[in-house]
Amino acid sequence: MEEKIQGVTNDIFADVVESHSASKLFEHLQLDRDAIIGILDNLVAILFPAHFANEKTPGTYSLKYEMGTRLSNVVNCLTDQVMVSLQQHPDYCNKNDEMRRDHAEAIVGIFVDSLPEIRQLLKKDIQAGYDGDPAATSFDEIIFSYPGFYAIMVNRIAHVLYKLEVPMIPRIMTEHAHSRTGVDIHPGAQIGEYFFIDHGTGVVIGETTIIGDRVKLYQGVTLGGLSTRGGQSLRGRRRHPTIGNDVTIYSNASILGGETIIGDGCIISGNCFITSSVAPGMRVSNGKGELQIIPDKK
Amino acid sequence: MEEKIQGVTNDIFADVVESHSASKLFEHLQLDRDAIIGILDNLVAILFPAHFANEKTPGTYSLKYEMGTRLSNVVNCLTDQVMVSLQQHPDYCNKNDEMRRDHAEAIVGIFVDSLPEIRQLLKKDIQAGYDGDPAATSFDEIIFSYPGFYAIMVNRIAHVLYKLEVPMIPRIMTEHAHSRTGVDIHPGAQIGEYFFIDHGTGVVIGETTIIGDRVKLYQGVTLGGLSTRGGQSLRGRRRHPTIGNDVTIYSNASILGGETIIGDGCIISGNCFITSSVAPGMRVSNGKGELQIIPDKK
Amino acid sequence: MEEKIQGVTNDIFADVVESHSASKLFEHLQLDRDAIIGILDNLVAILFPAHFANEKTPGTYSLKYEMGTRLSNVVNCLTDQVMVSLQQHPDYCNKNDEMRRDHAEAIVGIFVDSLPEIRQLLKKDIQAGYDGDPAATSFDEIIFSYPGFYAIMVNRIAHVLYKLEVPMIPRIMTEHAHSRTGVDIHPGAQIGEYFFIDHGTGVVIGETTIIGDRVKLYQGVTLGGLSTRGGQSLRGRRRHPTIGNDVTIYSNASILGGETIIGDGCIISGNCFITSSVAPGMRVSNGKGELQIIPDKK
Amino acid sequence: MEEKIQGVTNDIFADVVESHSASKLFEHLQLDRDAIIGILDNLVAILFPAHFANEKTPGTYSLKYEMGTRLSNVVNCLTDQVMVSLQQHPDYCNKNDEMRRDHAEAIVGIFVDSLPEIRQLLKKDIQAGYDGDPAATSFDEIIFSYPGFYAIMVNRIAHVLYKLEVPMIPRIMTEHAHSRTGVDIHPGAQIGEYFFIDHGTGVVIGETTIIGDRVKLYQGVTLGGLSTRGGQSLRGRRRHPTIGNDVTIYSNASILGGETIIGDGCIISGNCFITSSVAPGMRVSNGKGELQIIPDKK
Amino acid sequence: MEEKIQGVTNDIFADVVESHSASKLFEHLQLDRDAIIGILDNLVAILFPAHFANEKTPGTYSLKYEMGTRLSNVVNCLTDQVMVSLQQHPDYCNKNDEMRRDHAEAIVGIFVDSLPEIRQLLKKDIQAGYDGDPAATSFDEIIFSYPGFYAIMVNRIAHVLYKLEVPMIPRIMTEHAHSRTGVDIHPGAQIGEYFFIDHGTGVVIGETTIIGDRVKLYQGVTLGGLSTRGGQSLRGRRRHPTIGNDVTIYSNASILGGETIIGDGCIISGNCFITSSVAPGMRVSNGKGELQIIPDKK
Amino acid sequence: MEEKIQGVTNDIFADVVESHSASKLFEHLQLDRDAIIGILDNLVAILFPAHFANEKTPGTYSLKYEMGTRLSNVVNCLTDQVMVSLQQHPDYCNKNDEMRRDHAEAIVGIFVDSLPEIRQLLKKDIQAGYDGDPAATSFDEIIFSYPGFYAIMVNRIAHVLYKLEVPMIPRIMTEHAHSRTGVDIHPGAQIGEYFFIDHGTGVVIGETTIIGDRVKLYQGVTLGGLSTRGGQSLRGRRRHPTIGNDVTIYSNASILGGETIIGDGCIISGNCFITSSVAPGMRVSNGKGELQIIPDKK
């Protein structure tokens, strides 16, 4: 067995080294996933300390010190990780370490400035969750136990980094949320205010999706692309739908395609499969094998 | 950057303090999520020590000591957490600490007494899983590796606390199970004996659902509400369906509405979308764009 | 409360002991789930050290030592766990410890030998992911953050043990991946080269499924059985479909039944529910309540 | 063996319960030694963050947050422990919890106020160590690696609590330092400025010792009592010597007795055994079986 | 550097293997020091749970479960370690594993039976400490913070194993206590009741020492051998002194030699160096370069 | 209390910042003590893997991988720490980071090369311990449980770094050993082969001490300086004695002064206080208040 262990170790080791040398696309990155998840944990503890940091006494200086310690920690770790990730940024992959560090620090500075606004957005999302779910008994319950809230919180954090063109890190963050919640929101998706996802498992929201204000989604909803046959040649194009304001999409509905627009105020019933636009104010459901689209009488 | 850190810390800190002071609904709770998950971990280790506590020798006093230590721990921690949660209970939010502690201790006493019965129920669920899945090779495999079993185990624990009107804690427990398994069972759901969920990801079972004995569900099944437009005004009403005895519901079927009753012995095919009641003994499937409902010839 | 604790402890303890004595099917196993997950963690760290072991310098001897240490550890722990699991193997449950150890060592030897080939397969899966998803920016991103990649990695590991007839352990491994990713692939499934699952939540692939090369699946796809009414009597029979080469199956489609064959090059649209075979080169979609099956004009 | 375990557990348990009930002097205290050591660790990290907290950038806000977090933590934990310890204080053992808490908070407030002064004293001790030891290469080396410095740091902390009549906790602190350094300074000892102990192992400084400024001790020095035959009847009386300013006491010398005064500027050679007072400015050494006491010609 | 690492690793590895093969005295043992220290930690937590296990409520069943869990753990771990250590026992080094296990279990059985008696002895030692030290304020303080008490507690535990001829383990235990306390008591030493060591650092008590009841020692006392020139040829012979009942030995005194007997009731002053016997009731001190031995007038 | 915490934090923070800015001698170093102790732990695990790494099977490749992993780790961490420490080296404090790194790497290279020789030296020390102590039952016992062996092991490691003029780190290493063992050997001391310290507590060996081969020391022995009145002006001069070959020094003896030479083969009795040279072959003891120096008749 000792020989086997030695042989297999040598074999895989040689292959790792070769992959590393032969290709810029394989095994050359040194991001630290645990560090990135640690950054996320600190961020949610800063944003909602009573729920994610077990802070017992919100009105005290000790909380402030705790928050400051966490934020300093976020700044240090995130700067390091962004600097590494910039090795994959087309404009920075050939720059030296100092230039990458300068740019990483600039990015982290903008990111930190955005945190108070993220908290304001999330408070509106909590309000939307409370208003939208009869089972919700308090704002605290939303923050403590709704997976959809955790997913949108991570998306709002990761989306800021995505807009700043940080490679890889936003995806690692949202995939962590995906693993915890079953909700897969690409960091590129633009999402309006008062957003609420109930239950959440199986929700997929693609990279180029645009979502308006006061939108409510249920479990299993896909906001996706029509076909991926083009593969990498489709990179950068709008491939996912646009959802207007005040739209509700019930469970397991699919809305696909970059030219599909769901108008303001629409209600999409469960299991609908939609690949073309719907005018504002419509209610869409399945009936006799076809989508029924009729004006919504509230 | 130091100034930024200080500024953002001050900003968010002030907002947390303000939220805390201004509203009874924000940030005033001090539940400890990690403690609640620790309670769950101890409970499953007590219920099935060979599988969740790595106990090597089930027939020995050392196991008994281990179980007793865990149960003592559960009693202490759960009493503390219930006492905190009662701050959100309408009858106890204005009571003093001593009265809350007395009530918390009474609740925990009843809860502890229910554990042997919970184990008996779970043994029947294991039997149902073994009988219902040709891929299952032993009872142990069900306990060790079926996410549906873990989800129903947590539900049966949390449901006892829900019936005792403990705020928040049952939901934190079931959302922990949701995160691990993709199965979202509200602690309010009433579930009969010999219950089995296969694969499980995406299953949603709403708060006021009632499920009979010997029911089998597959992945993606929703037992949900018809519309949530009423929001908080719907709180407390029956919004989710009633499922009879001996019903099988295949993958991704949706059964919605508080007045929808699925009769005893029905079989619901995959992807069916049902919003009205079905008589006992029917087999429901999709055909030519409509649901086909015919008597089941076994 | 002390009396309650003592009473309940005695009650459950007695029941555990009785279950253990009365039945070969209850509580007699002593597998260590944490150890099995630790084995998995070491294996993925060996296969892709830059991404799962935070190894910073892939071209160095220190990496080799690290890999060798991990592999030695895997060999020791896995041999122990396989030896325990063989108590449930029909040919070994009545053998003595020495014979079980000999067989466990033989199994682990074959398993270790298969690791370099597993890495080659996984490199092809990464290539398939990169080619198939316009949102993917690099191979590294696939390895770091695609849940479908993690799921197939664990499947390829567990499948080797499944073929060697190791009881229980392969399922514990794939259920760990299921919990992290929402993708439920039974270790028995046979999966070809260049396999890619996008988003992944809700995917279910049954025990006797056979999948060809260059197949792409989206979230919520079920490759399942038609009916489980037969329960344990169906054990060992083909119950799940055969998927040809170059097939794409979009989100939430279900393909069911052991005699269902999807021909090479087919494209299955989202939400299709298929229970009979499809000829090669077809495009299947829903239309007016029926499946539309037409030749695919690429 | 199971019976043995049960029998011995019952036996010792019964004895613990009996000791607890029968006597106010046995097993009724609930201090948490680990918590007290954690308080010490936080205190030294606050006083010298670059050396005991691994803080890398002393001039930054993040350090301030870190220090504030630690100090808040010290306040909470120390208040709890002091409150418990007051059960053994003659004036507070019969008071209720609220009165104990009030007094504990008052004590901790005074203690916290004393920390800046403790740091100033310790900076002088560092200077004394650097000036007094030719082997010392920097102030940092004193702080990082001199056991005598750690022992005096803990003594200066514990002495403040001792003067505030906190039971037990000061001793637990100094015994922790004793265990780490071999230097046993009773928290009651009064020690002047610019104090230095070199090597330190075996040094014992008794409860009622008084030490002047600029005193230097070497390993194995005992400043102790003459006889302990009186036992508890001696409690509270001066039993240990008075050491003047600018005294140096070389290794393994013993100075004993509550009426023994070593005058300013004396030098005591190694191994001297002194039980009566020495006038200022003397040099004491052993010679021909007797102490030689002669004026010191510097 | 990589080559250096590889070269040095190979070099030392080869030497370790060679030492292992060439000699029965080198590197062939597989005792686990951390496990042995863990056993000690559990034992002191069983003996004095309020002080070493942070048990908050001594009069409850949860304490009993906790103690039982710890004792079961001790039995398992100690049996394993004793079995390994028996490879060095002259009567068992050539026996098979089963015989070693049988003997290990017999040893551990006797050891467990001795624990209640050890607790009774230790309670007398606590009484002796309280009576003998005016600085002691309670029994609890002795248990919590006197290093001499910890040292005698470990000695009384290790001595039982020593008498049962367990190789190595007793020494590893007493050296752990030595490291924590500076008190080095060989597990072979026989020590009577009501034993007290004050301060403790530097105390050495040799393997063949015999100590009576009510003996009190101070820091730096050596009860040692006269000459070690004979080396291994002296193994097994009485080499250390006999101390009678009611003897007090003050700090840094040395009493050497296997034929040296200190009679009952003697008082030995600090720094005395004694190599021959002293009659009962004497007071020994230094004077004019010689020992002064006079009757003690109490 | 919040105000107090804030005030004291601000006060100490300001003082730390000021100390840092005002002086090159205060708080500017960023060594990581825990990292240095981690390096030591890895080194002793490489040198004696069966005793300090719990390696169960010394003759296997897995051990080699483990050793290589540890050594790689040592190289990385030690290079970092040496680079930091060079900020205090007179020749490197004004150099840039790259030059410090180059020099650190050169130092670590030499250090690594010395490890096999250190192991050879230590094997001789083990032999000396076994031959010299009748209580020692095996070589393993020496390695497992003799504090003197641990102290000399750390000294031999730290001495190599001291000779390479690494600031601070050697002292932090030996003070760690001092804390564990009570044996204080300055890393500058030169120590010959076959060195043995029995019991060890209280031994002090000064920076400029030179010790020959086959020397044996007992607890409490001081090899120290005569006077430290000169303070820093004495830096670099010989201040401690020279001990010849084959010398035995019994407990608590003190040998002081840089011009004091103890000749080959001398035997120094316990408690002797020696400040001038002794010719070879002498036996020194106390008698009638004076040292008796007579030829040793073996």
Automatic annotation (TrEMBL), chains A, B, C, D, E, F:
This is Serine acetyltransferase. Residues 95-152 form the Serine acetyltransferase N-terminal domain. InterPro entries: LbH_SAT, Ser_AcTrfase_N, Ser_AcTrfase_N_sf, Trimer_LpxA-like_sf. It comes from Anaerovibrio lipolyticus. One of its GO terms (cellular component) is cytoplasm. The keyword Acyltransferase applies. The keyword Membrane does not apply. Keywords: Acyltransferase, Amino-acid biosynthesis, Transferase. It comes from the Bacteria. One of its GO terms (biological process) is cysteine biosynthetic process from serine.
